[in-house]
Amino acid sequence: MAENCNHACSGCSVENCSQRDLHEKLNEASSVKKVIAVVSGKGGVGKSLVTSLLASKVAKDGYRAAILDADITGPSIPTAFGLGAERAEAGTMTGSDGQQKDFIKPVVSKGGVQVMSMNFLLPEQTDPVIWRGPVISGAVRQFWSDVIWDNVDFMFVDCPPGTGDVPLTVFQSIPVDGIIVVSSPQQLVRVIVEKAVNMANIMNVPVLGLIENMSYVKCPDCGKEIRVFGESNIDGIAKDFGLKVLARIPIEQEMSVSIDNGEVEKLDASCLNEAAEAVESFIKKV
């Protein structure tokens, strides 16, 4: 935020101001109650897995769930839900002002989760998206403003890694109610968490908690939990930042196979019970 800010955002010339309201308007035919962003300071920790499992979990709990796939150049959400062949319906509609406006309809999974991903707009799902940052950010904004989201209770935004253009666009353009930080047990996890938490603090978005993926492997014979990446220090990190550890997701062959086969909604997501409760409390408290 600039010095001597008078909070008159409409006439402000300062770019990248954390206090400036840059939220895009939701499509007038849409309804989204709460938005949760799933983030991490680095790639490969399982943000898309967590996003898919959480959306499936809250849908099974009786809420209307949606996923906005903000990973424009590397979307994996469609594969997890078995939606590789689907394409989004696009068209025009007459707005309340009498003007013609473009719209896109999300693809709906078998379990009722509404999903919007760049893959649904490509001729082939393997076609690369070779765009620069501003164009990618524009696509994320359109996924919020042009898509008709049907009475969504909880929207999960699957963010690409880091703190660059797209995560910044998500925080500034979409009214995010909270974020979940995904990490892994390696020693560099502290840096991962700290980057994500610091960005959330700068953007004034509350952090609901941490989820550790690839936490352990359970021995099929004795049931002992084996720490493949060494002992985790996630509890200490959470304590330092005043956060909760919402889940520890194990490495499981069944989970990997189900994701590859597009059957994420068939998985038992009981390991995310506490994380789902943290999300669902937004509406339960109302």
First-last Cα distance:
31 Å
Based on Cα principal axes, name the global outline.
globular
Count the helices. How many? 8
Q: Please list the strands of the largest sheet in the order they lie side by side.
A: 5-6-2-7-1-8-9-12
Beta-strand fraction estimate = 15-25%
Radius of gyration: 19 Å
- In which range does the helix fraction lie? 25-40%
Described by strand count, sense and barrel closure, the largest sheet is:
8 strands, mixed
Classify the secondary structure makeup into a structural class: alpha/beta
The SSE order reads: EHEHEEEEHEHEHEEEHEHH
Summarize the structure.
The protein is 29% helix and 20% strand. The chain has 286 residues and is of the alpha/beta class. Helix 3 packs parallel to helix 4 (165-173).
Please tell me about this protein's structure:
- About 30% of the residues lie in helices and about 20% in strands.
- Helix 3 (about 135-145) packs parallel to helix 4.
- Strands 5-6-2-7-1-8-9-12 form an eight-stranded mixed β-sheet, sandwiched between helices. The chain has a two-stranded antiparallel sheet with strand order 3-4. Strands 10-11 form a two-stranded antiparallel sheet.
- It starts with about 30 loop residues before the first strand and ends with a helix.
- It is globular.
- The protein has about 290 residues and is of the alpha/beta class.
- The mean pLDDT is about 90.
